[in-house]
Specification:
It holds the Pfam family BPD_transp_2. The longest helix has 30 residues. The C terminus is likely disordered. The chain has one domain: Orthogonal Bundle (ABC transporter involved in vitamin B12 uptake, BtuC), CATH 1.10.3470. The protein has 13 helices and no strands.
Length: 326
């Protein structure tokens, strides 16, 4: 915790130097970020942005806890969203709402499992398979909303709107679902044999193998859980306003990459990941207010995020060259 606090202060200090170099007042800029993120006019937007960021951060933290990096969150997110829309358009009523969420989870879990099987059976590194499998998933979703699922009354690549009874008209249901998932992850991580196996594998894969942990089976389970949660996040976002799938709308806000930054910053600790994700969501949301009030580009918030990760990595020794025992 002390390391994170020192790193945060160092990143803010460097950000202040960058702000001063542009001719802006650092105190005013930081005040604008805080007010824009947590003020009466911005808190709702921050909360709405934090829900998918926290969800994706938790999804990516699940395998990261075992030292496995899932870079395919965007593809799993998009597949979950388009699956939820496809089911929601054809299954009416409350049953359609539940079926849409389940479809999103299953789509993300099954797709992520493909990457896990490629590593465990074919020896293809997880980093490669998860990242590359995102592109056909996003292209498939783009095809669907341009042709078979396209809204005929619109020139945009988007689906029809969901029926009124298959929608999240308020933020509360999505917030509750993501909060419940975070709680479940924290309990499983701290109180169950599965969580212990995951942590041991993260501490040392070779030691975990000697302890009898089935790494291939663990890889499939963790990737399925990670992809399933990413698909659930996609479904939750798709069921909310504007109640349709719009090509590119889930990629532009960078839920996945900001979530990955949060998971890395917290070393995949459940509570730490939650706090880091909310912090990054607030930083991103407040950046828009800073740009409006001080004319400082909001891209500075992305610079702060990157600097924060680099400083933390340096402070914890992640960037130090490890010695090879001879």
């Amino acid at each position: 915790m002390k390391t994170v606090a020192v790193t945060l202060l160092a990143a803010l200090a460097l950000g202040a130097i960058l702000l001063a170099a542009t001719g802006a007042n650092p105190l005013e800029a930081y005040q604008a970020i805080v007010t824009g993120a947590f003020g009466p006019d911005g808190f709702q937007d921050t909360l709405a942005y934090a829900v998918p960021v926290v969800g994706m951060a938790t999804a990516l933290a699940i395998p990261l806890r075992a030292g496995m990096v899932n870079l395919g969150g965007e593809g799993q997110l998009v597949l979950g969203a388009i699956s939820a829309i496809a089911v929601g358009l054809h299954v009416p009523g409350p049953l359609g709402l539940v079926a849409a969420l389940v479809a999103g989870v299953l789509a993300g879990a099954l797709y992520a499992s493909i990457a896990a099987v490629c590593e465990t059976r074919l020896g293809v590194p997880l980093l490669v398979t998860t990242l590359l499998l995102s592109y056909p998933a996003m292209s498939f979703a783009a095809y669907l909303v341009r042709f078979p699922m396209r809204d005929e009354g619109s020139s945009l690549p988007q689906s029809d709107q969901l029926p009124a009874d298959v929608r999240f008209t308020e933020l509360a249901p999505g917030l509750f679902l993501i909060a419940a998932v975070v709680v479940v992850y924290a309990v499983v991580d701290a109180r169950t044999p599965a969580g212990f196996e995951t942590r041991v594998t993260g501490w040392g894969p070779r030691f975990a193998q000697y302890a009898g942990i089935d790494r291939p089976a663990l890889t499939v389970r963790l990737l399925a859980c990670s992809g399933g949660l990413a698909g659930l996040v996609g479904a939750v976002v798709a069921l909310g306003f504007p109640y349709r799938f719009i090509d590119g709308a889930l990629i532009t806000p960078q839920y996945t990459w900001i979530g990955l930054l949060a998971a890395l910053l917290a070393a995949a600790n459940p509570l730490g990941t939650l706090v880091a994700a909310v912090f990054f969501a607030a930083l991103t949301s407040g950046g828009f207010a800073m740009e409006r009030e001080t004319q400082v580009p909001r891209e500075l918030t992305a610079v702060l995020q990157a600097v924060l990760i680099i400083f933390l990595a340096a402070a914890t020794g992640l960037l130090r060259k490890r010695r090879n025992p001879a």
